[in-house]
Amino acid sequence: MNNQRKYYCNPINVNYRYQFNTVMHSDVLQVGREGADPSLICYQGKYYLFASMTLGVWVSEDLVHWENHRLPDTLPLYDYAPDVRVMGEYVYFSASAATKNCSFYRTKDVVNGPYEEIAGSFPFWDPHLFVDHDGRAYFYWGCDNTTPIWGVELDPVTMHPVGEPKELIFGDALTKGFERIGEDHTVMPCPEEEVEIKFQAMMEQSKEAGVELPEHLIPKVRAFLSNRPYIEGAWMDKHNGVYYLQYAFAGTEYNIYGDGVYVSDSPLGPFELARNNPYSYAPGGFFPGAGHGSTMEDVHGNLWHTATMRISKNYTCERRVGLWPAGFDPEGDLFCNQRYGTWPICVEGSAQDPWRNPDWYLLSFKKPVKASSFEEGKEPELAVDENVQTWWRAADASPGQWLELDLGKPCDVRAVQVNFADDKIEIPVPGRIRSETDQARYIEEAAVMTRWYLEGSVDGEEYFLIEDKSQAQSDLSHDFMVWEKGVMLRFLRLFVLEVPYGQPAAISGLRVFGIGTGEKPAVPVFRAVRTGDLDMEITVENAGKGCNAVGYNILWGHQPDKLYHSYMILGKDAQRIGALVKGRKYYVRVDAFNEAGITEGEVTQAAI
Fold first, then answer.
1. How far is the C-alpha of 64 from the C-alpha of 66, rounded, in Å?
2. Which domain holds residue 579?
3. Are 553 and 574 in contact (CB under 8 A)?
């Protein structure tokens, strides 16, 4: 691996296809890009990444550079949550369909096929195949707020169930804070007695209106009234004889979408909640969300976790794919490092350190920025606020609209990420809406282009070209460039030449990383107070009083040396953490960061 192949930056830098979605029972059309629910496998020395609504597979030899390959239309490419796993010499593929029996497909050549169909015998949503060390196959599925994650053994030849399915995991937001829905878990679960009162009142209103609620919808209505969490997206791994059943919680549209984990000494349970939960959780920073994913061992024996990140502005399922280092600690706790999960991440091969701190720091947060034009409410400043849900938008779609960032002084720039946003795409559907599936949509098959170039300057007078994508034959909405030896820059000017469907240029993040000058932050002084069974409040007391921080990383865990969870905050000095498990003690550390580096705080137990 050469020097230019060492770093990536989440979300994964691949082409995310556009979708044209019809809202149920209406003529409303929602348009945006999506990639979600990723299954990542290592097969014959290469990495294959499958995700929902992409029509293809991304292939890599290094987890850094990815190539897109179209998959055959004989596969259920319009069904959500493709699951992919290796069994014997074959790669097995399946996807979700709640109203029909779901088939399995297998191949020895992922890119070229052919794919052999194995007829399904039952419907499922969010499937997952696991092959044990003894060759026996197990299958897990479930995606609901009323039903559990299910599991069953499969005949590895027919792929039919062996025995009856077992109920393995149910949601419980009253004891697991991280399962609560809403931004930052702000929607509280409703006690059953209150649900019953609300339900009876609704039934009375329906009766008076002459409307009868169908029997099969009653559990759904009760779940809605109780604010029960969705649990979904199962994935299984085995380590030292222990089975780790991972699952997604809370809801894909929220910043707290993540993955929990249960453990057992049997692939079909019974399971108990693992000590380290949630396993994958990234609610803060530029691009939050880390749920419904997969865990994979690379060719060097390193563990990686890939999962869904959320935008959810154009429509609920506007999502992307992220990748983070993971591992098992000496006591068998499964962890994932997402402390600086949307900063450049180094891939080190056989020497991979899952807890390695970033080599470069964020230089662009809230720096002065100006543009050729902008739409009211979409000012240039929104391109540097570290929030993927806000963006600068040019006043019109003329080519050459530009955005200029001033770092304030010459800096040693090592990497830039250019994040394009979609806003108000109002065009006819370029293909046929497929309505025979569970969710009617069209996924763009034509090649669309994103073209731009980036200039730099030390003094604001003389500019030079630092990246040229003016002739690019690709649509990379989160493009990432690395200059490992560094480029001295104060000004960066991005010219947008072409975006899909003739949209005005829109940038949610012109993000610059490197090594700044000056002193690292002072050690942060903070308070960590348990405010309930499931919550704690973290306050940095010396923020702005000599701490000299751009932001903070709040770390916590069930032991002082296992601070595996994190929440990055910028531009504020306090944060409620709502992801705790009832009855457990927690230890907290707050680290401060700025453009010159990271300063660790002291570990303390959250006070009750």
1. 6
2. 526-605
3. no
